[in-house]
Structure formats: C-alpha cells, structure tokens
Amino acid sequence: MKRPILVATIGYGIGIIGGLCFSKSIIFFYLLLGVFYGVKQLFLKRHFSLFSHSIIRKNKSIGSKTASFHFISYSRLKRYLHLIVNSQVIFLILISSFISNTIVLQQNRTITHLQDQLEKQPNLELSGIIISSPEQKQNRDDYLFQTKDQSGKTHQFVMQVPHQMNKTFSYGDELKIQGEYRRPEKQRNEGGFQEELLYQQRKQLGTIILHQGAILAHTKGNVIERKINQISEVAKQKAREVLEEPINSLFLAMIMGDTSNLEEEQKDNFKNAGIYHILAVSGMHIGIVILGVKTLLKRQMGKNRTYFIIIVCLIFYSLLTGSSPSIMRATIMSVLALISFFVHRKNDIWNSLSISLLWLWIDNPYSITHIGLQLSFGGTIGIICFSRLIVQGLKKKKEESERKRFRQEQKKRNKWIPKNLREYGYQKIIEIVSVTLSAQFILFPCLVFHFNCINLYFLISNFFLSFLLIPVAILGFILLVSLFISFPISKILAIPFSLGMKLILTITQIAKLPLAKIYVTTPTWLFFLLYGIFLFIFFFTLRIAVAKKLTVTQKRAKNLLALFRFRCYQNHQKVKKILSFFLIFLLIFIIFCPYLFSSPLFIHFVDVGQGDCTFIRTPQNQTMLIDGGGSLGTFDIGKNIVLPYLFDHQCKVLDVIMISHFDQDHVRTGC
Questions:
Q1: Which of 236, 258, 342, 517 has its CA 20 to 30 A from that of 615?
Q2: Using one digit for the tens of pLDDT, what is the confidence trace for 403-420?
Q3: What is the pTM of this model?
Q4: Rounded Cα gap, residues 125 and 486, in angstroms
Q5: Alpha helices in 403-457 (DSSP H)
Q6: Cα distance between residue 560 and residue 226, in whole Å
C-alpha cells in the first residue's frame, strides 16, 4: 500500500458521512455487503466447478480462431480494480470508517442528551470563562462562553448580552451567569439553512440569553490564547486609526481573517467577481510568512534554527487569524514540509494533505460540512491534479504552433518585443490560467451546490488580481508588523496599501457586468456522478496527451481511442444517422416530457418566520408563488430563504406570482 494515510482519511470521511446521514451504525451495512459477497463467491465457485469441463472443451474446440475484440471488457476492468483496491485497502477503509462512524454516532447521542438536559432548566445557572472578544450585533453583544462539567469536559455556548443590560466583558473573565438556554433550530425548510449544523461545526451546544451575570475573576483561561487575543485586539484598534473604511474591513479580512466588519454588498461583489477566496486566510499567507522569516533570519541563524522559528511563527499566525479550516490546512502542510527537512525525508504532498484533513476531522467530525474546508481542500486537490498537466499541455501546444510557417510572420510583427520578455509573459499567463482552471475544475460543483450561481468572468478577474494580490498582501503583512513598531511608519505604509486595495475593489466591479452571475438550480446526485465521470476521463486523457513515455495502460487507452475514431470514420454514414436520430429523440423528449409524465400536485408551505409563503407546482410542471414573507431588519428573507428554497426544488422561473395582501410580513421581500 503506497499511501496508507490517504486511504485511512478516505475511510474516515466515509464513516463521518454515514454517521451524519443515517442514525444507524455503518457496521450493519458492512455485514450485509459481506454476506452478499460470500454468497456470490460461493455461487460462482459452484457454478464454475459444475461447468468447468464443458468450458475447457469449448475452449479447446476454438482452435486457431481469433477471439473478437471488445472496447469494454469486464475482465480487464476487474483486473484494474484489483490493482487499485486490494484487500489491504479495503480492510483499512473498513476499520477507519467504522471508527469515525462510531465517534459521530456517540457525539450525536452526547450532544442530544446534553441539550435535552439544558432545555429542562428554565433558569440556567453556569460558571465559566469568556473566550472571545464581543461581536457586536444590532441590539446585543455575542460572546463565546466556555464551561466545564463534573467530568472535566469543556462545552461552549454563545452568550447573548442585550444592550439594555449595559454589561461588557473581556477575554478571560470568569463569570457566574443566569440565563435562558435556547437550543439550535433544526432545518426549518427542506434543503434550507441548518442552524444546528452550524453550531456543531463550531463545537457549540447552543445559545444562552443572559439575565444576570457576575464577574468572579479576571485573566483566567489559557495564557497563550489570552495573549494572542490581546495582540489581535491591539492590531485591530491600531488598524482603525491608520486605515479608512472600507479599506480597514478588507485589511482585517484579508490579513487577519476577520470578516465580521464586511458589508453584505462587498461580500456579494467579491463572490460574483469570482475572487472571494482572497478574503480567506490560506496558503498564500502562509507562503508569505515563510518567505519573510526565511529571508530575514536564514543567514544569521542557519537553516535548522530558521525552520524552527518559522514553525513557531506559523502556529502563532494560525491562532491569531482564528484557526479557520483553510489556514489550518496550509499550516499543517507547511509544518510537515519543514519537519521533513529535519528528518531528511522527502515530503509527499498527498500524505501532508491527508494528515491535515484527518487532523481537522479528528478534532471535529462535523467540520466535513464546513464550506471553507470543502473549498480549501477542493481547490488544493484541483491544483495538485491538473495544474502541472495544463502547463505541460499549453507548452506542448506552443511548441507545435512554433513549427508552423506563419510563426515567422508573427515574429516579425512582435520584433519590437524582446524574446525573453515574450517568453516570461507567456509563462506567467500559463501559470495563472493553469492554477485558476485547476481549482475551478474541483470547486465548480461545490460552488453550484452551495451558492446556486455560475460566474463567467472568474478567469478575467483572477488574471488581473494575480498581478496585485501578492504585492498587496506583502504590504499588508509589513503594515501589520509596523502597527506594533512605529505609528508614523504604519501611516506611510497605509498609503500604498490603500491604493492597492482600491485597485482590487475596482476589479470587483466586474461583478456588475451583464451575465456576471447566472443563477442555476441545485444540482442532483446524477449531476455529481456525471461530472465526476467527466473529470476522471478528462484527467486521464490529459495525462496521456502530455506524457513523454506512456505506460501500458495509457498505450492501451490511446489505441482504443484511435480504434474507436477509425471505426467511426469507416461507418461515418451510420454514425451520422444514429447521432441525428438521438438528437431528434432528445429534442422531442425535452419538449413533450412535461406532458408525457405528469407529476402529482405539490403544495409547499415555506417557513419564513413571521409571515406566509406558499410554493405550488402543478402536474403540468407550472409553478406559482403566493406571498414571499417579509424582511426583518437587515435580514432579507427573499434572498436568504425563499430564493434558495426555490432553487433546491428545481424552480428557476415562476409562472405565476400572487400577493394576498400588502402587509409587511407577506410581500416585503427582496426575492
């Protein structure tokens, strides 16, 4: 087994998914598969033992006849499958998935039991420590409150402090509180937002609405975390003094991972322009930290000591930015790469990626549903798999085009451009295109599933952004350090940094171009299956196209493709007739499908809180929306509840919209 950690991570993820989707242990499913496999093997053994003689005689009677060739051979596919998935791989997947499945089911039972006990107490009394700075809301402040039970296990809550209480707390305050416990809500609409899942991702049991609170002591809790929080608050306070809005909010999001101050319009512009990833602290930031520390200290302290200091700085920076899944992935992978230098072993990127993902899942199995984790690991996997192949493919294409005759004329037209500059520019464009496309290949289904939209200008926006992002990020890090050294220097550095951020904000205006955001309905499991098959075929074909020396399997696949093209050329008239018949049949099926297959009448009562909203789908697949709920404060019910609900039910166009009356809770929506 080449990469056992990767296999164990895959099995661990399978067990977590099984525990989240089903309330039963996965062991029953494995036992059923074992029984089925045993019966199948026993049947096949008896079958072939009874007819083996006749098979041998039949084979002997063939003589010198040539066996017919098949494009798709079951025996050949079975041999390939046995090479990839052997008994060791299956055993490791079964063990790791069973462990993770058991852990998830146990945690589900524990969390449910604790929440049931807390709900039974009308006036909850707890003692604990504040482990966060206040997050200001419209009429309250939210804190993270950590307490311990009798067994010593820690539990976290979101403590809501209404503004009328005039109480403020600091990180590390030990409190004795009385309040009302509110359990996280389950999914209110099919396919809608799950507050319960969000609290599980953050390892929180629920919300406590504070009624009374008394401070018992100050500066309690973990000393390192408290000091890091103080440093973070000082940096945020000084950043407000040297940077104006919205540059300050973008600085905190881009360098320190704090997106709480960003307005929804700004977030939407970054999302629609396809550059929202720059607001998440990720591998680029870790690379800048490594490069900066290495440049400053390598000559003075030597390689080993410098690498040790880099590891300490990376851990400090990940804690400073909130330890999000994206920064934890980059930090763990970088630390493993640096440790490999100490132990004089070659770092394997797939093992590093697997260890980082396994670390996060062991710490919190519910993080598998975190959007940031999916986007971070998905983008990294896409870059690892496709980036190098796309670069090689584009270079090969360039070499082939240089052999053509019109290349001489093109060189004459571009004679005023130096050759080295042309080569550098072409190489830079190839790198930008390959990285952007590689990440999008994996992230596309995830983005469509979560955001129900397709961005057509992501390649253009990321192309222009690539020339600005790294210089602006380096300036941001230097500005962050200067905030603790010299205020006048930070004021000077704020000028070029603000200019760079304004240019980035200009790039986000691409989101306002026509067709910048195309809404699509939530894809089904069939879409993910077909997209996965397409991605596998594309990856395999791309590897064959750029390979300098083909393997036996690649040669066989290339010969099969050539043979298929030759057979199609031989029977091109028959192929044209089959394709024409298929296209006509598909067109007729699409047109008359709603009339041929009538579905029952569906009436959906959408939960929009205070208000009414009804979605109706007729047997003829016509849709109707009656009312749409009402927006409460800054929360847009139409955008956040009604529109996702329609997309989840495969409705992109409404045939009829009816309004019962014009009260605020029936029609005041942005849908």
A1: 517
A2: 665 555 555 555 555 556
A3: 0.84
A4: 46
A5: 406-413, 419-451
A6: 63
